[in-house]
Amino acid sequence: MEADDKESGFLVREYRLDIGLDDLKRMLDIDPDLEVFGYPVPDSLVPEVGKYSEESVVFDESCNYMVGFFRQ
Questions:
Q1: pLDDT at residue 2 tops 80
Q2: How far are the Cα atoms of 1, 40, 62 from residue 69, in angstroms, in the given order?
Q3: The whole model's pTM is what?
Q4: What are the extents of the domains in the chain?
């Protein structure tokens, strides 16, 4: 998950998530058959998604949050 400053759009912080793709899509209410490369995380779900980060996530209302999906 990444946090981007709302005003500048610059990346402020990145968080590596330890959660399966299917579980993350379910949490964010994304169709499991839909292929997406990035998806916004609603402010209300940042703390929940942040539980799967390797480091502590502190919600910052001056940021927009997004998850990226990458193929290996």
A1: yes
A2: 10, 11, 23
A3: 0.87
A4: 2-66
